[in-house]
Amino acid sequence: MRNSTRSGVDPFIVMDVMEAARRAEEAGRHIIHMEVGQPGTGAPQGALEALAEAMRQGPLGYTVALGLPALRQRIARMYGEWYDVDLNPERVVITPGSSGGFLLAFTALFDSGDRVGIGAPGYPSYRQILRALGLVPVDLPTAPENRLQPVPRDFAGLDLQGLMVASPANPTGTMLDHVAMGALIEAARGQGASFISDEIYHGLEYEAKAVTALELTDECYVINSFSKYFSMTGWRVGWMVVPEDQVRVVERIAQNMFICAPHASQVAGLAAMDCEDELQGNLAVYRRNRDLMLKGLPEAGFTNIAPPDGAFYVYADVSDLTDDSRAFAAEILDKAGVAVTPGLDFDPVRGHTTLRFSYARSTEDIEQGLERLRSFMADRRTAQKSA
Description:
It is a single chain. By secondary structure, the chain is an alpha/beta fold. The chain has helices spanning 13-26, 45-57, 69-83, 97-109, 124-132, 178-190, 247-257, 263-272, 276-300, 325-336, 363-386; strands at residues 32-33, 92-95, 115-120, 136-141, 162-166, 194-198, 221-225, 238-241, 304-305, 313-317, 338-339, 341-342, 354-358. The chain has 11 helices and 13 strands. The strands form 3 sheets. Strands 2-8-7-6-5-3-4 form a 7-stranded mixed beta sheet, sandwiched between helices. A 4-stranded antiparallel beta sheet has the order 9-10-13-12. It has a two-stranded parallel sheet with strand order 1-11. A hairpin with a 7-residue loop joins strand 9 and strand 10.
């Protein structure tokens, strides 16, 4: 059968790495997973109990397309608690994960051929979803002096119809402060570009609270999810906040694309928002893991790393070690038993000399993974001296 030109998207390389790691485990090897951005913990216990009770009470069917009203109201209340933002719950749209939010946002805001700026390095699925929708992703190469975040001059004169930012970012973990976020919002507005803020890693911050775009403007789309801070990746439930005049636009698209987000996941997500003690306990693990990574990676020989303010990643420039990050990641998996992600996923131009390390798993795994990396790099240096 023929395929559309829109279907010619690139693979999500981290998923290929996961498959290679799975095959190695199937063959009997023990693999430390530093490749995937998935919490080592599951949904909070209170979420599981709430869902069990809801299932005892009766069948779970469709919800309305915008999501359970109680969940929308609770999310709106969270913006007051976290950011002192007074948010109308009518502006909250429940989505099938953040991926569903990207589909809804890109479909609502852009026409075929529109150009949308995305920071590079950045989450690869932005680029591929845009292409699959007949849109044009415009990579904005970011600089270390800007903490690998875009700045207005990166897209000056590029005739963008949209700008997508992420803070904390994947793969770097770097964040935008109020000034930096505000400058991007104003620059996007100046060229008539819609502003979308991916805030999926909010709640996972270590030095300062992340800034939501809603603190600075109502004329934006904000996308978030229960996957990361709330530790619910497989539940596929997230949310968007949109301007009031966009709610009906998004609702119509959601009705036809998805009908609704999974009812069970919405019930669990609502309860998860009140499991703060457990969630903060998870955050304490990530904070410990981050400290271990910031010490252990340079000791192993990965010395040029971005400063991770949030999320659970370290992005390393390995240009002094390789010019083929995919082959290097495969070598690390084969010889060290540690799965890491090549930077080509995040930056098609410069990613051949970068790697991403995730520290979302248990502290025991991170300690063992770092020890394996230290041993691997020492052996590699010895072999190179002998060659």
